[in-house]
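seq:
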Amino acid sequence: MFPFSPPSLLLLASLHFFFQISIIHAEEETLCNGHTSLCSRPYSNITFIGAHNSAFIGSSPADNQGISITAQLDSGIRFLQSQTHTNSFQTLSLCHTSCFLNDAGPLTAFLTTIKTWLDANPNEVLTLLLTNADRTPIAQYASAFESTGLDKYTFAPPTTNPLPLADWPTLGSLISSKTRLIVFLDYGASPSTVPYILDEFAYFFETPFNTLDPTFSQCSLDRPPNAKPDGRMYIVNHFLDKKLADGGGGIAPAPDHLEESGKGILEDLTRGVGQLFGKNRKRMVGEDIVIPDREAAPRTNAVGGRGGIQAQVDLCKGLYQRNPNVVLLDFVDEGEGVEAQRVLNGL
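struct:
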């Protein structure tokens, strides 16, 4: 004879099933960016692998990424950087150097894609770094965030701005408070009027970019000028360029440092035409146009090896006594960027 009647057995089986489901859901809720251990770690004590010029996607020599924004995020990237410019219609667009040369569409479309992804991934914290070479008023950026509803996902420091390194919330806290999007702008931020768009260079310093050295044998403080590393997070620009004369074709946008000289539509057009007909070569690195080195990406984005991610991180760590907070890569679908993110965070 069975100690329990069939209805009782059915009830016990049902309770066991729901108990197991509850455990699974509880475990899912403890994940932060895919790892339980990151929930208790401050944002300022995590290393993110970032997609440099994340919106410029394709197979042309000037493109920096090979897969879509959604695919970048699905692969494990949690830091997206991109350039913005005001186009001839006075609309904020994702443009590389100028909207005449490479326009990847309006900022609002980019933000909508990000909102869709965040809605589908409620336990993920994401960072955006936008550049503002045209010094577009901050109100236009705020309008883009508000029109897409993405402003409701953003983090704004509750007290001082800039926030000291030790005062950053944990990933778990950012998720539970529904402020899972951290936004930085390189120029033109105004914390007093738009507190959720943070001043990049009040929080970060960066290493040099547009490097042609495949060994990445430096980690000096490049921007902001004359700054000290103390009290700032830092970004390592680990993406390799090559001279256009060494391979490739098409029209290449100017190197990133020329972004800081943008002064409007007429200059964009003049610069674009100059590049189109080879009249602007002296403004390029080494008097040559430089383009992303796509062929070298598997080696550049490897965890180890000469010129790999770990080698430059070790160099930087020797100088600053701590890991970088961000390592920016081109072609994040090539090499081992996401694996490097796991290794650098001790996961």
